[in-house]
Amino acid sequence: MKITVIYDNESILPGTCPAHGFSALIQLEEFDIIFDTGWNGVWLLRNLEKLNLSLDRVKYIFLSHQHWDHIGGIPEVLEKIGRDVNLVIPKSFTSGFKKELARYANLIEISSSTTEFYQGILSTGEMESSIGIKEHALYIEKYKVLVVGCSHPDVYKMVKRFGTVNVLIGGFHDFKNVEKLGAIVKSKIYPCHCTEKKKEILMQYPEKANKCGVGLEVAL
Ligand SMILES: [Fe+2]
Ligand SMILES: [Fe+2]
To answer: Which domain holds residue 87?
Structure first.
């Protein structure tokens, strides 16, 4: 399997466009999953093209939380896919937004419990931050990979839903306890997007942590 970062605040591949937000394409054996969409679908599709990737094999769109920098690209993504696709979202998305999305995709709404929505592919379940932001994250069991959007409910708690993980990638918003990460992430840490402590994480875990940005490929 391969995860490619296709939208991020930073770019590590010349010619791709950095922009606030996050999105990754997860290529599995059977199909692909697109995780979040950044805020600008035009730039997202442009980055995909630059990276020689397409949405042709996408069977699931996974939206982590209803923030502009993660859902903004959804119209272009849906239009590009242009066929029935499954859309995995937290149950708490606003009813108007859900109603609109349901016109173009099959909604799979995730409640607060950990949910296996396809064999070996799970959602943490909708979790809530201290200021009431609801968010879930994507877990691929076979590779013990957790992909997170902003981790508003606290990335540590999100990983803890699965005990430990091998790979953690995405935004770790507001996360300050850098020293606690090493014990719960066994192999690789990719601090992306809104992670405040990127520098500290890279310094504290020189073996495990790698810089994130558009163009990053994680092959497992
Ligand atoms: Fe974000
Ligand atoms: Fe966010």
So the answer is: 2-219
Report the separation in Å between the CA atom of 193 and the middle of ligand 2, taken as the mean of its atom positions. 10
Kindly give the distance from the C-alpha atom of residue 173 to the centroid of ligand 2, in angstroms, as a whole number: 8
- Dist. CA 110–CA 136, nearest whole Å: 8
Read off the pLDDT of residues 22-42 as tens digits, 9 standing for 90 and up: 999 999 999 999 999 999 999
Report the domain count for the chain.
1
Could you tell me if 202 and 191 are in contact, meaning their C-beta atoms sit under 8 angstroms apart? yes
Provide the 10 A C-beta neighbour count for residue 110.
22
CA of 2 to the centre of ligand 1 (A): 22
Residue 66: nearest ligand to its CA?
2
Measured between alpha carbons, how far is 204 from 220 in angstroms, rounded to an integer? 23
Q: Does residue 83 register a pLDDT over 90?
A: no
What CATH number is associated with residue 113?
3.60.15.10
Indicate the pTM of the whole model: 0.98
Instruction: Report DSSP letters for 5-35, one per residue.
Output: EEE-SSBSSTTSPP-SS-EEEEE-SS-EEEE
Q: How far is the CA of 31 from the centre of ligand 1 (A)?
A: 26
Q: Is the pLDDT of residue 199 over 90?
A: yes
